[in-house]
Amino acid sequence: MWIVVASHNGEPGMAQAAKALQAGGSALDAVEQGIGPVESNAWEDSVGLGSLPNVLGQVELDASIMDGRALAAGAVGALQGYEHPISIARLVMERSPHVFLVGEGARRFAHEMGFPRLDLCTPQSTQAWRQGLQRFLAETEIGSVGEREQLLPLVNNLQEMVRHHGTVNFLALDSQGDIASGVSTSGWPWKYPGRLGDSPVIGAGNYADNRYGAAACCGYGELAIRAGTARSVVLYMQMGLSVEDACRKAMQDLQPLLAAQGGDMGIHAMDRSGHAFGITTVAQAPGYWVVTERSRAAEERKYLHFPIQHPQSQGT
Fold first, then answer.
1. Which of helix, strand or coil describes residue 78?
2. Known catalytic residue: 292?
3. In-domain check, residue 212
4. Which of 49, 131, 252, 279 has its CA 20 to 30 A from that of 96?
5. Which residues lie below 8 Å from residue 44, measured CB to CB, with a gap of 6+?
6. Chain segment 199-250, per-residue pLDDT in tens
7. Residue of higher predicted confidence among 261 and 196
8. pTM, whole model, 2 decimals?
9. Contact yes or no for 202/189 (Cβ under 8 A)
10. Tally of domains in the chain
11. Is 129 contained in some domain?
């Protein structure tokens, strides 16, 4: 049997992921090919092309992928000018001696691997970036925002506007019993240049282990880093908890952080037998997606709501 699990914004890639597995492809193929169409969707403003820029108006992308067979992983962070960071992350894993490349190094690696450069800003994303800055800067100041001696006060003000920002997650189990996970995002809009959330951090944003299962996160990335959330879910399954109980326990670990600092968190997980589960702190959240060898077509499933009392929400 095979199965693909994806976050609510992963719908555009579900058919491609399923097609990869139907053709005998690997879980890694399904994850990469599922995330690719989401990265190319200019209307998805938190992943790939058309993403909302950082405070300087630059789109910086993060992605990671993990192979549950031998705990191999690859990641890129703060990557500018390339549409498919998930594919670049896979080549970091498969072609380099490293796990994680960022910034200029990631850009250079993408060029060396033959990926085409692309301006990731769209008129819509640029307009949204400018409208945010207009709340705190005069129109004449926006063009020279990069020349400001201090960016942090502006970034802190802009983050007050961020309520929730998306990440695309894919988990897959193939017919050979191999498991893979992957995440791709542009992170917080108006973020400080170089900011990395949990998405490119193995063990925080995603984790996969053939022996137990896989998990991936979306939400307030800094907190998932501090709690090692994706790894925690898999570790709880290793300790004998069901996939549902493992996700609940990981959310309980996060609860003090979320209550103190605000923000939202969602977890998608799957055990080694292909049982999938989704949990989120967002009330009335859109469902997550699952497609199996039996269903053949993606079906939307409801998240379990895990309520958190917090002062205000922040983004991923």
1. strand
2. no
3. yes
4. 49
5. 9, 12, 38, 50, 51, 166, 168
6. 999 999 999 999 999 999 999 999 999 999 999 999 999 999 999 999 999 9
7. 196
8. 0.95
9. no
10. 1
11. no
